[in-house]
């Protein structure tokens, strides 16, 4: 068997790879939890600095779960929860070739507002799963890995989130 | 087919395109479908605040490079080193501050020393004083075994501790003679307070003297302005012979055989430091004691027949 030599996290090149691979999702994930983008980025920074400090002890393949664990602990320790504020890509508005009537656009915008409010008031566990799937386009198995639960549990949370959103939007 | 989209994972599977075609068809015909569809489509357009990955990485690099420097410093001087250095410093200072100065004279030797506060101590032969130089000006305290004349500079109280009692002054001239069962203080100037072993307190003024010998205390007056032993002779005033013989021993490095005489006799007089034979004669002739000076400096004393 052709064994690849072990990659060390302590090597600058490898460390940078790990950063480029995981930092954005990690940052979004914490953001979905706490709703403060600045805090999320600070937590990510702390997590990577801790990873560097422990680079000799953490094997390359485990770096990701190390990062998530550290970030999560940080989050649990300091968080001042804020509401998640999301934006919609303004595709339809910015494009001039839209065929939609102003009426439709207005209704669509109203719907988007409702949706964002509903997402913001979702329970944290449902929200992080929902947004990791929708925004970060993560598969359930990947989300399960990040959140640290089974795929089945992720699916349950996802379904729950959709149901909650429908009810919330219907109410408004 | 009747579908139940409230089933635990149904919606999740729908979003992930994992439904079977029958399930999907049935779902598409339900009332709620268009609502879910709208949520799905709208949520796909959601985005988070922009992320500048490059900048975030640079920030981490900056923090790490400043940390690296810290690390190096720590490695050069390991943490235990600080502890070690501190304890060594502590030991040295303990040693230094607790270190007391000891000055002794031997037979026939008479020296004068100056204490840190310029007080002067004259030591008669075979005398030892001990004091701590550290903080001397705050705590003028010394211990004495033997005889010494003190000229104390004015200042905080000055205490001489001896086995037989203590003498406390503020600034005067006085002598203290302390040895086993003997404690004698002469005040030449100012005022001194003596506290004997059995805590008898006596205040002495100029020209007053005090002594305890075998637990009996005496007071007397004298007129000298400084102790005669500084000027080459030792003076006694009704002093037990025991003490006189000791002074002779210390001065001339003699050894007396006193088995045949009474040491409690009193002697008043003076002996010179210059000539051992004259000294012995001046002491023992009036006491009607004959002496025999042998080669090995031992003296046998007997009563004259």
TrEMBL record, chain A:
Domain RNA polymerase sigma-70 region: 19-82
Origin superkingdom: Bacteria
Annotated transmembrane regions: none
One GO biological process term: DNA-templated transcription initiation
Keywords (A to Z) from UniProt: Sigma factor, Transcription, Transcription regulation
GO molecular function: DNA binding; sigma factor activity
Span of domain RNA polymerase sigma factor 70 region 4 type: 113-165
Classification via Pfam families: Sigma70_r2, Sigma70_r4_2
Protein family membership: Belongs to the sigma-70 factor family. ECF subfamily.
Protein name: RNA polymerase sigma-70 factor (ECF subfamily)
Organism annotation: Tenacibaculum caenipelagi
From TrEMBL, chain B:
Keyword hit for Signal: no
PANTHER family tied to this protein: PERIPLASMIC SIGNAL SENSOR AND SIGMA FACTOR ACTIVATOR FECR-RELATED (PTHR30273), PROTEIN FECR (PTHR30273:SF2)
Protein name: FecR family protein
Chain ranges passing through the membrane: 73-97
All copies of domain Protein FecR C-terminal, residue ranges: 235-300
Superkingdom as given in the UniProt entry: Bacteria
InterPro entries reported for this sequence: FecR, FecR_C, Ferrdict_sens_TM
FecR protein domain boundaries: 102-193
GO molecular function: sigma factor antagonist activity
Keyword Zinc: no
Key words, A-Z: Membrane, Transmembrane, Transmembrane helix
């Amino acid at each position: 068997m052709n064994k690849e030599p072990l990659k060390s996290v302590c090597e600058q090149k490898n460390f940078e790879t790990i950063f480029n691979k995981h930092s954005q999702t990690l940052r979004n994930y914490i953001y979905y939890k706490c709703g403060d983008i600045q805090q999320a980025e600070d937590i990510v920074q702390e997590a990577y600095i801790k990873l560097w400090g422990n680079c000799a002890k953490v094997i390359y393949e485990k770096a990701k779960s190390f990062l998530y664990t550290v970030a999560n602990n940080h989050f649990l320790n300091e968080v001042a929860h804020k509401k998640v504020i999301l934006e919609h890509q303004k595709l339809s508005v910015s494009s001039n070739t839209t065929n939609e009537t102003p009426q439709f656009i207005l209704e669509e915008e109203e719907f988007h507002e409702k949706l964002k409010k509903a997402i913001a008031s979702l329970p944290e566990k449902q929200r992080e799963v929902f947004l990791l799937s929708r925004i970060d386009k993560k598969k359930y198995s990947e989300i399960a890995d990040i959140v640290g639960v089974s795929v089945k549990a992720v699916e349950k949370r996802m379904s729950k989130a959709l149901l909650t959103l429908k009810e919330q939007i219907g109410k408004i | 087919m009747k579908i139940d989209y409230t089933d635990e994972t149904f919606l999740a599977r729908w979003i992930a395109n994992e439904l079977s075609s029958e399930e999907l068809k049935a779902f598409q015909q339900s009332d709620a479908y268009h609502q879910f569809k709208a949520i799905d489509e709208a949520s796909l357009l959601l985005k988070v605040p922009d992320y500048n990955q490059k900048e975030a990485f640079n920030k981490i690099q900056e923090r790490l490079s400043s940390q690296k420097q810290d690390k190096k410093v720590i490695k050069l001087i390991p943490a235990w080193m600080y502890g070690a250095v501190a304890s060594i410093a502590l030991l040295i200072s303990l040693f230094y501050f607790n270190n007391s100065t000891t000055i002794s004279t031997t037979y026939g030797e008479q020296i004068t020393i100056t204490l840190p506060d310029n007080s002067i101590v004259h030591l008669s032969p075979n005398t030892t004083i001990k004091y701590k130089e550290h903080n001397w000006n705050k705590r003028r305290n010394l211990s004495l075994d033997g005889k010494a004349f003190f000229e104390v500079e004015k200042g905080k109280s000055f205490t001489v501790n001896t086995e037989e009692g203590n003498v406390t002054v503020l600034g005067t001239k006085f002598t203290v003679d302390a040895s086993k069962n003997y404690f004698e203080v002469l005040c030449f100037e100012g005022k001194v307070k003596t506290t004997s072993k059995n805590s008898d307190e006596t205040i002495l003024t100029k020209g007053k003297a005090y002594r305890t010998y075998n637990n009996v205390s005496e007071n007397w007056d004298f007129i000298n302005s400084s102790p005669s032993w500084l000027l080459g002779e030792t003076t006694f005033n009704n002093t037990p012979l025991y003490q006189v013989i000791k002074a002779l021993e210390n001065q001339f490095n003699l050894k007396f055989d006193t088995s045949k005489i009474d040491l409690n006799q009193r002697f008043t007089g003076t002996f010179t430091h210059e000539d051992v034979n004259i000294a012995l004669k001046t002491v023992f002739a009036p006491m009607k004691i004959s002496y025999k000076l042998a080669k090995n400096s031992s003296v046998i004393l007997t009563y004259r027949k």
